[in-house]
Amino acid sequence: MPTSETDHHHTIHALYDFISEHLYLNRPDLEVDGEKFNSALLLSLLTALLGGKELVIGEPGLGKTTSAEYVCALLYRIPLGVLWGSEVAGHPEQTEEKMVGRPDLGKLNRGEEQVVWSNFVQLPVKIIDEINRLPETKQSLILDGIDRGNWEYLNQILLQDEYCLFATANYQDQGTQTLIPPLLDRFDVMVESKHPGANLSFFISQQEQKEHLLRDGECEREFYAVLLDKVAPEGKRAKLEEVGGRFAGLLHERHNLTTLEKEERRTLRAAIAGLEFSAEASAFTRTALTELSFCCTYGQKRSNEECLEGCHYSGYLCYQVRNCASNRLPISLRRYAQALAWLLSSSQVEAEHVRCVFPFVIAHRVQWRDAYVSAREREARRDPLPIHLAKQAVAEIWHRFVEQREQIMGALAQAARILAGEDLQPLEGDHPIFVEIKRDLGGDQLW
Amino acid sequence: MNLQEIITAVWPRVRRKHLFPQLPTPRVGENASTAAVEMQHKQIVLNAAFCEQLAANMPLEEVVEASLDHGVAHYTRCPWDFATHLRLHAAAKEVLQDREMAQRATDAFIDVVADTFCVKEFETALPQLYKHLERGPLATAMAALYSRIWGIDLESAAPEGLIRRLSRISYLDRTQWEKSMRRFCRLIRPILEEEQQQEEGMSSAPLGQHGLGGHSQNEVEQGLREFARQAANPREFHETVADFAEELAGQGYTDAQEGMGRGKGQQLDTDLLYYMKLAESYHLPVRKAPLQRSSSLDLYAHAPWELGKPIQDVDVWTSFGKILPGLTQTWLRQHGEVVGRREGVPDCIIAIDSSGSMTNPRYLLSYAILGAGCVCEAYLRHGAQVAVYNFSDAPAGDSLSLDFTTDRKRIYQSLCRYFGGGTALALDEFDELRRRGRRSVPDVFLITDMAITNLEPLTAYLSQTEGRLTAVHIGETEAAVYFKKATAGWKNVSVFAVTRKEDIPRIILGQVKEYLRPGQRGV
Amino acid sequence: MVNPFREFHAIQGGRREIPLDRIIASKDLILDRLIVGYHKLIEEEVHNLVWLVDHGALPRAYAAAEKAIAEVNFTVEDVEDFCFTLEKADSFALALAGPSGLYLSAMCNRVEGTEISLRLKGLKSRVHLLGYRLPEGKRLIVEGSCGDFAGAAMEGGEIIVQGNTGNWTGVGLKRGKITVEGNAGERTGEWMEGGEVQVKGRIGSLGQVQGGKVYLGDLQVAPVRETT
Lengths: 447, 523, 228
What we know:
The structure holds three protein chains of three kinds. Chain B is of the alpha/beta class. Chain B is built from 19 helices and eleven strands.
């Protein structure tokens, strides 16, 4: 059966439509393959689907946290009231005990060590409100836990096989901590939850208690009962899934919405991960990654080294960026491009899908030269500056790729044959990717 | 299927062929005046009458697909961006010396490039479309050229020598476009002249002209900046950009006030635009509100308590009332960071010399204006205000004062005003302007060749003033040496001697940056 | 070893080819060969040519130029394009005034076709010796100005210079016609044996005209007509 006909597509599209029509009302600001989406909602959906990590920025009160809550409530079958009780609020005095777990005081007084894990850790959905108000050590603690899929406290470990993270951040103001680059790099995507416009905003004001669409007192009590039960977390999973199933039944009954059980989510993730990149999508990705990591003089970008004036490649982005693309970047890019392609029922990942998610993958990761920022900061735009800069950068790379597509793909094909043993010479071209290819073929002078 | 439905059906195929251009689904234009294929706000508009007329000779779907191929190729291939469009037009104008002919030639060249790209890269019905298009003299020659370079007979005849020569141009080599454009123009010039003399006037490109519709406002801005950088002088910029005045006016590039002696009116002041765009190209990135360390130590994070550590910072809540290594937690403290105030960036008065000894900014690049423009950009970026005192023989009335403002256009208008007379500064006028500063003491930025007749009184006046002074002079004149000697002991003055005019913007930027960003390295 | 390119292995770079590709490739090939020939000429003869007019040096250099292009099959358009290359040349050697003129003359004299238009307007330096030995039946139209020795030793062709010419215009002219729409420099018509030089602007000075006619506008200035 072709991918486009699978039920899962209908399910996920229906969830998107339900949220966009009833819960998170906002304008579409993204068009891909002829379909229009709201970027915050789309990326939140993809994050929840994939089990990714998303940083949502925006002005206070514009739905940063709620967009994630709506998506997760439906994707993971967890009532809103439970999600609220599991969120971590960012503030400087936040402690590991509130976020991760604490000793069972009764047992501690009896000289036994037993950890009571927090709801945040136990649920697959992790939402951190205002992460930039957390000190770096706490930010790191959470991201470490998510990266590894395990949580440690008092030498006890909780293992998780399914999780996603949503962290919100206000723009920098007094009392905020900096999100340092190594931590930012661990987020897959960054997106802004935008103002919906005066008309939608006014319309939203007339919606009363829309959260009730995703709440149920009975289910929430059942959830809490399982979460607070002091049995080992591994033993609770089946129970949580069972309670979630009852909530899913209610959702279907009330809103005619189908949701996915854990096994279905796993199948779906496998389907997404199985989507191949088209040759063009792969070539474009490589071209873009080259521009974000290449340096002809110093071998690669390094944040403590600045490009020389008059470099031959000053027309490329490598001249404009200060840091080097990490290995996490292509992972995020691949996963989100695959998820988008899957959502759009494409049989493979096209260059268009990569282009669409690319700005959101690099917006928080790339550090631009001051001159590049100031050249663009006054431009007309609809996005916050980091996302605008990322979109412009991707458009630039795209433009170059479209022009040099045949040569770049030819050079990659030639390189494949050379490495397969054919007696050929690498192709020449202006884009730095041609140099990168030569380096891979051993043509770089090492001494 | 109606035309819009055909477009919708064909569009995904066209997008894929052109590697997914970021363009919305095209639409049908019913207006008779619409060109065959037009780009409006990045949306391709196909003329219904045109499509239907051609549908008599070929399937409507092919007409639509070929037209869309043509429209998209303009976006993705040629003219590529607005700066390239301007450069191509400038090359054509250089040869043809006539706006109308240059526009027609540019359109024709862009068409050859875009359509040849399509024919070379993928299946397209463009040749069939060209076969059935109505043709004026130039279109006839172009169709004959297409027959030759595409290898498809379009049933068009033109002089063999001309076609042979036209077919030797490297249309698909972007690095050669300007050179190719010049050659192209020389060759088609007789046809353009013939068309111009026709009763009905010059023909337009058979599939429509190329305007700004394919470029967003940001792309136009960027194109103008790039073209300003590449133009040899303001005149070249003016001659090319003025040809796009009407379209640029549609994008808001009008000048409602007097500037550069062009008189009042809604015309586009290209000279002002030139200096504005050029100055924008020299960026001075500065932090608006640097973070400063606050004096208090804030609770920052937890760390395990170890034996021997003081216990006053133990967090009793997270330690569960116990003092046990590994369980007990202690607070770490760090300095808080608060947002600094903006007082580091005062307002600025730019005093610019526009006497006869300075370059006339309309004909040659005035580095004085460029330097002043860079300074203006730097201060405005910081939210500071800028005042301008433009002087030639000020006591005789050749001066202009602009009060502190953030209005860039008015600042540039004041900077670009050229008096071209003697050089004297009216100190009372200058002093009055300086005192109008509303926020602290303004900085003074003086740019001149120092051939100021009342330099001594000016120096004496400046010695009495507070605030920082940056003076830039061109060449090591006696007056400049005097000024440097006189100000050598002053702490608030930086004087730059410039022997190469090209150094002015860089030096100014470096200095301004230095005092706007204490502790940062220069540009 | 990991082959990070393996997914591209099957991709063939076979782009569609259109006649334009062949035309450009063939043009570039011929132009390259003409430029190579030109460099060869410079290497061999530049010392003689720099000091010009040693009587034996010129025919020898011309013979070298003829030899340099002997193997190249070029057209009138190639000659024009070579001129265009000179216009854009940054290389000092390529823009050398004497050799470039002699080389161009050799090309004009050999190429098939009767009418050749050369654009010299944008050249950084003036081209000397243009039209050297131009044979009968050839017409050379020059857009812009020539350097010295325009139409030297011409053998029956016609040159129309739409700008000015330098000194020694028509030196040693045997047969044919030179029309200068602007001005001509000193010693115009020096050692002319026949043919006609017509200058529509001004003439710096006349050389020793031994045969043929020199006109200033419609007025014959050499040999001076005896008034009856």
